[in-house]
Design a protein that fits this description.
Number of helices: 13
Order of helices and strands: EHEHEHEEHEEHEHHEHHHHHH
Radius of gyration: 21 Å
CATH architecture of the largest domain: Alpha-Beta Complex
CATH topology of the largest domain: Spore Coat Polysaccharide Biosynthesis Protein SpsA, Chain A
Largest sheet: 9 strands, mixed
Strand content: 15-25%
Amino acid sequence: MPHLSLSDLPAPPPDRVGWPWTEDSPPLPALAPDGRPWPRISIVTPSYNQGAYLEETLRSVLLQGYPNLEYLVVDGGSTDASVAVIQKYASWLDYWVSEKDHGQAEAINKGFTRTTGDLIGWLNSDDYLVSGALERLALAHLAHPGALLLGDVELFTQDGSFAQVFQQRGITFEHMVQVWRMGFTWSQPGTYVPQATYRQVGGLDEGLRFVFDRDWMCRLLQVAPVHYLGVVVARFRMHATSKTVAEAPAWLPEQVAVTERYWAKIPGMDRQLARAELEVWYGALPHLSVMRHKMNRRQGLRHLGRAIAYSWRIIASVRFLILCAVVVTPTPVLRFVRRFVRI
């Protein structure tokens, strides 16, 4: 795909300014700084009824100024404005389709099977790349061709009330299996994988709705090293209809299933304590989170009780103690605390 500038793409809506609406990335030279060709980077955007955000996603990829980009959009048969947005940019896409599928994992796999890039990743249709992201990823791939590349990710809310940079760190197979452990941070939008490694481990598990990305990482981390870019490459949008926000209480069964797939490979792992930790993090926390969800103290307390039933040693967990305090704290006090603490 040749370098695209603002003048090549449709004009943005009149109320949108800045990146990637009225700003683009400077074009890169034909060759990388060491004289080698730029690696081909393939990006798949899975989408379903995200017409409100999709155009920003598309523009953030197309306006990277990157000379060796392959971009594919796989829509699940949206009924909103998504198809109209895709058609608006179809001339600059290497492939797109809009048809019913069985979920996000299938859509991503459908795109991945068509990719020809040296480096692949997916960008959800409500997130977007920052300016210069592909140049940073390409240079990292040239220096570390066999590594999983992990760039930092900024979480943000649409109204600007919350923003936080997730600095990717401490990402190992052991941490990805024991996902409740402190000391590591991982965010999917900053993750890019060598094509050869993807071919080695295969695609995403289409039987999972929520944590197919974590399962994929568990497989990838067993065969490939990690390289951290140390800079932000993407922004992750938190909004009321995203799975991360709207459906968090439903994640627990899949989190348990993925942990159980791999825990035999973690020597000495306490499986009962692991189940207790999962009850706290993915059972109680979504119901007691002051930041993301309407609180349900009864459900949260039920999961805390189940955690103790799995292993009484969970009472030594800091997160367990914090959530116990949340259960008994009056709502007006929690509203005040919310201004200062993100739980």
